[in-house]
Specification:
The chain is mainly alpha-helical. It has two domains: 4-80; 113-198, Cytochrome c-like domain (Cytochrome Bc1 Complex, Chain D, domain 2, Orthogonal Bundle), CATH 1.10.760.10. It is 43% helix and 0% strand. It is globular and about 50 Å long. Bound molecules: heme C. Residues 120, 126-128, 130-132, 143-145, 147, 160, 163-164, 167, 171, 174-177, 179, 193, 197 line the site of heme C. Heme C (HEC) is lined by residues 120, 126-128, 130-132, 143-145, 147, 160, 163-164, 167, 171, 174-177, 179, 193, 197.
Length: 201
Amino acid sequence: MSTSPNAAAARSKPKAEDGALHAVGMRGSARRMTVRPQWVASGALAAILLAAGCASSDRTGPSPVAGGPKPQADFGPAAFAKWPCLSETLNCGKISNRKPMQAVMAGQLGGEPAAGKAIAFDARKGNCLACHAMIGGVQPGTRGPDLTRYGTWGRSDAETYSLVFDMRWRNSETVMLPFGTNEILTDKEIRDVVAFLQSSR
Ligand code: HEC
């Protein structure tokens, strides 16, 4: 199934182009409006409304689906750029632009479980709850395996570290984000998350 991400990216492309053509069409009609003097006033009003609209869309970013809900303000384009490109609606397609790597953890783990829990539950950090049930977490997603008793699985700190760092070395088709490779979490943050997982019993 190694072709499916590419196929998804190819499918999403025409959609993006449709959107661009539509935007050009709208701009063209706005220009035609302003050549009629009696419409200048309404044109100016439209320009003000347009500017206000642009300002707000700069802040919140476009909706990922036509007519759908807008992302929260803090998830605007700048914040989104920090995330790996797993989007099916953006040009980048589904595949992250950094190669999978099997990271080797240096020295002892030394993470803090409480800090790791906060990172794992924070939608702007690990956001692990979006896919995994975790101890103390509410309304988890079910895309990934239940990690509520991960500490009893007998996995080493080093293996867990390298999986959270980048799951793709184990499963090239994974939907789990490469937290280390794509610099979503720092080395210290990954160690904290691993400590939280190991303390989950
Ligand atoms: C987008 C969904 C998603 C997110 C977000 C996510 N994971 Fe995963 N995770 C998965 C899936 C799916 C798997 C199963 C392995 C695979 O992809 O084949 C997995 C597997 C794992 C495993 C290995 C479990 C095993 O059976 O070996 C660990 C550990 C893990 N995730 C930890 C985390 C942590 C910690 C976070 C947050 C920092 C996180 N995951 C965020 C989807 C996700």
